[in-house]
Amino acid sequence: MEHVNSHNAFAEAKQCIPGGVNSPVRAFGNVSVEPIVYDHAKGSRIWDVDGNEYIDFISSWGPMILGHRPEAVESAVRAQLEKGYSFGAPCVAETKLAETVCRLIPSAEKARMVSSGTEATMSAIRLARGYTHRDKFIKFEGNYHGHSDALLAAAGSGVATLSIPGNPGITPGAVADTLIARYNDLGSVRALFEAYPEDVAAIIVEPIAGNMGCVPPAEGFLQGLRDLCDEFGAVLIFDEVINGFRASLGGAQQLYNVMPDITTLGKIIGGGFPVGCFAGRAEIMDCLAPAGQVYQAGTLSGNPVAMEAGLAMLTELEKGGVYEKIDALGARLEDGLNGIIAKYSLPCCVNRSGSVLTLFFTEGPVTDWDSASKSNIQMFDKYFEGMTERGFIIAPSQYECLFVSAAHTEEEIDSFIAAADEVLSQL
Ligand code: HOZ
For the segment 332-375, what is each residue's pLDDT rounded down to a tens digit? Predict the structure, then answer.
């Protein structure tokens, strides 16, 4: 494959954008290949600026659950463009989207729209603190909740990928109330509550972790968090920016039947446009200004184009059939990869939750950051390079996930498995 135009475009980007990217994982810091610069996408396919065609398994890190440019979303966006694209004032679509969120997400009674997952999570923490009048919160090592100061401690995603130490720019004061527990380890959470019984405002958790690779919750882990929050009077926040409308139409909370107090959403809820949302029990949500005293705001919050895109996306998902399809494709992919691992006795394992999957280059089991970080990054690099050369786009980091969409076919999954067989046989 020729990558001349991509190379030149990225070189130009580096002149005016730090590192050439607007989000660090995209810089391919975990692998030895240069970033690919894309031109257009449709369905399961994406094309770079050299005209190379790939099957896309990043799916914009999750939002393109129906594949790229589904007709329903495109026509909703076009229709709104004719009517105006930023009002900085209420619009009907934001109410319809909030109603839809409250209908689909089991624990949501009221919802506030923002423009990104980062905004949703940082606002959810502020809200939990304002509601409980407590300062501290618990997060998990290897979980990633966007890039606000207090939440970046021991984070997954790009922080883990690039091994960024200590997060320069974040003051000790900003993280003084951030307590770190171990994912899937209820004992580590209880120990923090017992050390600060009156001070913990909230637990924030990715109910299915997706930023240290895919790491599903152990049996009883989420219910255990619910119970601990009830025992110590803390708010439980599920960060469902990845899992929301992905793990099921009602997110991970519906799949595991554990209800948080606040849920953060992003990615799919915007249909590919920049939307975030936090939603929860009315009693808590009504602490937000102007109903209450906890301040949070945004000029582009509830943007009409983004709201129409999200609404069209959720309406399509509500028609049914998508989750059965993508989960079955995910299972087919998992089986294929496990077959290859067995065939070549590779020190690898696969973690999957529905349509989200990670091939880890460690024997596993991978249940937390400690076990995920044992992965062999050199092997991952070779796998990534081999798959890219064969026309498959996967996340350029061991600590991210592969996303199957409803636009993928069984044939495409089988061709991925055949390519992976070739690549992994040479490791
Ligand atoms: N935080 C995203 C991965 N978990 C990466 C976002 C991006 O680079 O687009």
Answer: 999 999 999 999 999 999 999 999 999 999 999 999 999 999 99
* Alpha-carbon gap, residue 239 to 230, rounded angstroms: 18
Tokens at 247, concatenated: 């793990």
Question: Residue 250 phi/psi, 5° resolution?
Answer: -100, 15
> Which atom, in ligand 1's list, is nearest to the CA of 22?
8
* Mean pLDDT for the chain overall: 96
Residue 55 Cα to ligand 1 middle (Å): 19
pLDDT for the residue 168: 85
Choose, from 239, 261, 368, 381, the residue flagged as catalytic: 239
Does residue 50 carry a catalytic annotation?
no
Q: Is any ligand 1 atom within 6 A of the Cβ of residue 397?
A: no
Question: Is the peptide bond prior to 106 cis by the omega test (within 30 degrees of 0)?
Answer: no
Tally the residues of the chain: 427
Query: Is there an atom of ligand 1 within 6 Å of 353 CB?
Result: no
Residue 316 tokens, joined: 């399509």
Angle at 409 between CA 407 and CA 411, to 5 degrees: 155
Global confidence as pTM:
0.97
Nearest CA to ligand 1 atom 6: 23
